[in-house]
User: Fold this.
Amino acid sequence: REFLRATLRPAAGAQPPPLLIMPRVRDADTEDEPPSQRRRTHTKGTIVRIKLRNFMSYTSAELTADPGKLNCIIGPNGTGKSSIVCAMCVGLGGPIKATERGDAIGGCVHDGVDENGVKPTEGSVETELFEGSGAGRNLVVRLDFNTDNKEKWFMDGEPSSKKKVKEKMASMNIQVDNPLQFLPQDKVGAFSNMSPVALLKETERAIGPDVCAQHEELVVADKELKSMKQSAAGEEKSLVELEKQNEVLYADVERWNKYQANLKELERCEGKKLWLAYDAERGEYDRLNDEWKSKKADMKEAEAEKKALTDKVLPLKERVASAKRSLASSTESVKKNEAEMAAAVERSEKEDDAAEEAKAGLHKVDKALKKLTDTVGELERRIEGDEEELRVEEQKVSVAYGGDVAAAKKAAADEVRSARQELEAREDDLANYELGEHEGRVRSIEDQIAGLGDPMRLKQVEAAKMNSAVPHVGKWVYEQVGGGSKEAAEAKVLGPMLLYLDLPDKGHQKLAVQAFPARTLTSFLARDEGTRDQLQDELKRRGPQTRITVFRNRAKTFSPSPNRPSSADMKRFGVTAWLDEALRIRDDLRGEVLAFLKQQMGVDTYLLATPAAVGKIDALQQFLQQSGMTGVTVLTPERVYRFGRSKYGARAATSSSSLPQRHRHAACFSVVVDTSRKKELEGQLKEARKGLELKRKERQAVERDVGQLQQKLDAAKGRQVELNNNTVRLNRLAARIDQAKKRLDPARESVADFNADAQKEGYRRRLCDAHQRS
Assistant:
């Protein structure tokens, strides 16, 4: 075996065992080959050298690797093997978190001193990669870093950046984040638990990006193939269903074709019907034309008779003329002849009027007869058309409903009744899935959790513990004084006072309880006289059980005693702060609140101190006396000291001490969230939300059922309405046919009873008589 010892210098003062880099054992058949003839397996990007300076456990170290061999680093625990692995990762642009050795590069600076006893503040890692800069040119990557987490990168001595280094590593397929290429010992457990899919993916990444991309393409193609197979199966299934539907619809198509053929035959018959009607009308026309010709011949005969009569009148006129010539001989004879002629003319005119009246009577008879026959023909055509329409509609209904309309109507009514019953039953079920109770429970738990995390609400709870009337009075102030506005209420009333006092320091919180009485913490401060009177009247109305104190403080600014020394000057006595200095109060209210507290409890006379003040209490009292400050109370965790002056004689300085008292409001300044209660409520909230979501899903399922049943009911109603409309249409056609038939018989009787020939014969005789008389 060949061993190559690394030249490593351990940290100053440490003497770890040496590390060995062990190359891979050669095969037996190449053992005796000269180095120039051995197979070269060194690939581009292989690490051939690592140089460390002030890196983790090393002040200086340089490792070289033999190309084409498996190089191992061997050494006991604590000799720096993991430091070299970490350097490999960090020096090639990898994140230090990947080594599980920290989260910032500044933590990699050697934590020790060099040979000169100086603690280093910066270090470097230099890595040489085989042919990283091209054929025959190794790439040297260097990282300089310091304790301020500043990094500087160099490639082949030229300044660079971490981004460019990582891009260069990616071009050589170096992946320090891939456990198949770089596996720190802290990642072995996670590596062994990798799924086969994740292991395959990382293996492909380690081989090269092309393999991984090809695998991704195969995965996408496989998904597309599965999708196409599923689509083809669905299409095939749809084809089978459509073929079945086609077989079912074939009979309907046959019926439809037959129906269309019947319609064509009906149209042909309708055309023939028009020809028949034309023939009938043509016969009637020929008859009337013959009758008209006969009447015309009669008229000619009458005119001939009239002409004959006129011819008879002419001789009379000639005789009149002759008589006039012979007037002298016979005047009376002429007058007689003229009278006879005038009478004859009058009779002729009367007979002409009678002839015209007879002609009008004949025309009237013909017109009345035509009207009666037209009425009969119209009724017959209407009956025939309605009967044909009724037959077609009955055939449609028979085809649509299987020939039994009554059974179809009963089935439709039953279907509507059944669908309505199912819908009503499911709507009744919907009432069992109301969400109000579950939503209310969720809101209630959320409010409780919010209350646990709200310091102001916790303070309100503490104030209520001290005085149960505080919440009720506060609500009245908010609603009646502020009109439902917090800002408007605070403009007139402050309270309870605990809400405006905060002590950030936990040590001060325990001490301040000794200074504040519960009466002060639960009191209300009216900011004007009218509001004070209004609030006191309300308290009187509520009765003596409402023990709330209302103050009216006119001072708006606060100023402590001019003789009071600063707390910084008393720090040597164990004093931390005056109580008014430790209180945190809103800036816009600080002066007014502290002025009120000074008036009520002397807030500027309380000193907050540590246990160290107990041993220096006499010196503290003497310092306060020299400063001219009296009436001071010193609060320590162990005792409470009060300094004052005697009321008698020379008014000598006095002091007293007592043990801290236990108060009901001991936790009023240290309101914290009850984590156990909050955790319990969060569990309840999770269950409540889960129950609400389950109930919501169940309700949605019922609502979907209700919607589907409503659609089913609407469809059944639609079919029932369509059937009823068809039935009503058939009934109307049948009723119309019956009415037409009832009118047809009287019309035919009227035609039979009219006796047009007899009426015409009377008018003809009157016409002949008129001609003869004329």
